[in-house]
C-alpha cells in the first residue's frame, strides 16, 4: 500500500477520537490520569486512550518535549534507541524507535511516518508504521506495528494544558492477557506521569542545549535528507513474523528500572 501523508481531515478525525467518549471504557482514573480502552477491540489489537492535565506546563512546552529526540534520551528510560531517518515534507518525517520490554518478552521496535500540525490552541502529532528499504526488521527485535498513534495537546490558558495520547498498536506477539491488563492499569498511567515530569524540567534543560534549535517549528533548521513517499509502503502486520509469547507467566518477568514496558 502506498504511504499517504495525513491531511487536515486525518487530523480532524484524530482529534474527534481523542475527545469522543462513546464506545470507550475507563480502565483507570486516578491522580489526574484517565485511561480508556476501546470496547470491541480490547481482546485483539488493543486501542488505548489516555488523558492527563498538566497544570504548570504550557502547550508549547509539551509539544516541544514530544518532538525533541535529544531530550527523549534523558527521560524515556525504557527507550533503547531513536533517530530520525529522513523528511518527507515540512511537517512529516520517518523515524526509528525501539524500547525495552520486561524480560522474558522480546524487545520491540518501530519504523513510523510521523506528521504534525499546530492549529490554534491545539497541537497534534500522529504516526503509523511504514516499511523503509534500508531499515528492515532486526534479528534481536520484534517489529511492532503502529496502526495509529498520536498526541493531542490542548492549551487551557497561559500555563496549563491537557494531553491526550491515543494508540492502536499490534505488538506482533500473542501476548499473555496479564501483559495487556498491565499496560492499561500500570504502564500507561506511569508513562503519562513521566511525560508530565519531563515537561516540568524541559525549559531549564533546553536553555543549556541548543535553545534555538527547533526544526519541528522552523523547517529551515531541518538537516534530514529528503525522502520520497514513493520509496515507502505501509507496514502491514500480517507480513511480519508473529512471536508467540502467550505462555509466559507474570512471575518470571523482570521489569526495567521503573516497572514499565
TrEMBL record:
Q: Is Transcription given among the entry's keywords?
A: no
User: According to its record, what are the GO cellular component terms?
Assistant: cytosol; membrane; motile cilium
**Primary location class:** other
What is one Gene Ontology biological process annotated in the Swiss-Prot or TrEMBL record? lipid transport
Q: Where is this region: Disordered?
A: 241-261
* Basic and acidic residues biased stretches: 249-261
Pfam families registered for this protein in UniProt: START
Where is the protein situated, by its record's location annotation? Answer: Cell projection, Cilium, Flagellum; Cytoplasm; Membrane
| Molecular function (Gene Ontology), one example | lipid binding
* Keyword annotations of the record: Acetylation, Cell projection, Cilium, Cytoplasm, Flagellum, Lipid transport, Lipid-binding, Membrane, Phosphoprotein, Transport
Q: What protein name does the entry list?
A: START domain-containing protein 10
Amino acid at each position: 500500500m502506498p504511504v499517504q501523508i495525513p491531511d487536515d481531515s486525518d487530523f480532524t478525525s484524530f482529534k474527534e477520537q481523542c475527545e469522543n467518549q462513546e464506545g470507550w471504557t475507563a480502565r483507570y482514573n486516578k491522580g489526574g490520569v484517565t485511561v480508556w480502552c476501546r470496547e470491541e477491540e480490547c481482546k485483539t489489537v488493543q486501542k488505548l486512550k489516555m488523558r492527563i492535565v498538566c497544570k504548570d506546563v504550557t502547550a508549547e512546552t509539551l509539544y516541544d518535549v514530544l518532538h525533541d529526540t535529544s531530550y527523549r534520551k534523558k527521560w524515556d528510560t525504557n527507550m533503547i534507541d531513536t533517530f530520525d531517518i529522513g523528511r518527507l515534507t515540512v511537517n512529516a518525517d520517518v523515524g526509528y524507535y525501539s524500547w525495552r520490554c520486561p524480560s522474558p518478552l522480546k524487545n520491540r521496535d518501530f519504523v513510523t511516518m510521523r506528521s504534525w500540525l499546530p492549529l490554534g490552541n491545539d497541537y497534534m502529532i500522529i504516526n503509523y508504521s511504514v516499511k523503509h528499504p534500508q531499515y528492515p526488521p532486526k534479528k534481536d527485535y520484534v517489529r511492532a506495528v503502529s496502526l495509529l498513534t498520536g498526541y493531542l495537546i490542548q492549551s487551557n490558558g497561559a500555563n496549563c494544558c491537557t494531553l491526550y495520547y491515543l494508540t492502536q498498536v499490534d505488538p506482533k506477539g500473542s501476548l499473555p492477557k496479564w501483559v495487556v491488563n498491565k499496560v492499561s492499569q500500570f504502564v500507561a498511567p506511569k508513562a503519562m506521569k513521566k511525560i508530565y515530569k519531563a515537561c516540568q524540567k524541559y525549559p531549564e534543560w533546553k536553555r543549556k542545549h541548543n535553545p534555538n534549535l527547533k526544526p519541528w517549528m522552523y523547517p529551515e533548521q531541518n538537516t534530514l535528507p529528503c525522502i520520497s513517499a514513493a520509496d515507502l509502503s505501509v507496514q502491514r502486520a500480517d507480513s511480519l513474523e508473529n512471536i508467540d509469547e502467550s505462555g509466559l507467566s507474570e512471575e518470571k518477568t523482570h521489569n526495567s528500572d521503573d516497572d514499565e514496558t
